Amino acid sequence: MNIGTIKREAKASLKNRWGLAILLTVVTYGLYTLLPIPFEIVASGGYDNWLKDESDSASWISTASAIVFSPLLMANYWAFLGLARGESVRLGHLFKTFQHFGLYIKSLGIYVLMTLYVMLWSLLLLIPGIIKALAYSQTYYICKDNPAYSMNQAITESRRLMNGYKGQYFLLLLSFLGWFLLSIITLGIGFLWSIPYLSASLARFYENLLNERSSHAE
User: Fold this and answer.
1) SS3 state of residue 194
2) 61, 64, 80, 143: which has the fewest C-beta neighbours closer than 10 Å?
3) 34-88 tens-digit pLDDT
């Protein structure tokens, strides 16, 4: 699997759709970041205390909010997978995981399970935690393609798919280091392009991974 090819395919999938990709990214991470703030302020006992970060309650609220709104992240992965496949994607697709209670609970549970597993492995050493995070990286995509899978089935299938490909996935992530440094230099403006580009590349990685696994099985 060639990283350069994946990134070229990602750019091709975004052609004439950069505006939508940027909007998907801004809405996803904007809501994921901003929605918990009012609850944190209340839990902190006021705006001044929240600014000083002096309340343990706010920390708990922040953690709970990250879990409650985590289905947005899975919907974002699905939207970019749709872009990678040339499908029709709309902004409203970001809220698909909130429209069906069963899907919402499943996406929330997957987030909790993956976070818990990575944390437990990280208790041993940092490296095992990173390896497991890479192994679980395809779980959201697998849920899209296999809606009948249970949470653990999707995670297990991700581990199977990523066997032998974790290093390439890590290198793909590293290849965006320069983009992110440039985004920081531009006071964050560059993230409007680098994050959608990364999201599209990760979706293309999954597509290429499926193709390689299929060709090896024949």
Assistant:
1) helix
2) 64
3) 877 777 777 666 666 666 665 556 567 777 888 888 899 999 999 999 999 999 9
Q: Are 137 and 158 in contact (CB under 8 A)?
A: yes
Task: Please state, in angstroms and rounded to a whole number, the distance separating the CA atoms of residues 11 and 17.
Answer: 10
b/e sequence 159-171, b meaning 16+ C-beta within 10 Å: bebbeebbebbee
Structure tokens at 51: 């600014």
Cβ atoms < 10 Å from Cβ of 3: 16
How far is 106 from 71, CA to CA, in rounded Å?
9
d(CA 58, CA 37): 9
Q: Which two tokens stand for residue 191?
A: 């993230």
pTM: 0.89
Name which of 140, 54, 36 is nearest 97 in CA terms. 140
Tell me the backbone φ, ψ of residue 185, rounded to 5 degrees: -60, -35
- With beta carbons less than 8 A apart as the criterion, state whether 88 and 82 touch: yes
Q: What is the DSSP letter of 104?
A: H
Cβ-in-10-Å burial (0-12, 13-18, 19+) of 124 comes to: exposed
CB 74 within 8 A of CB 140: yes
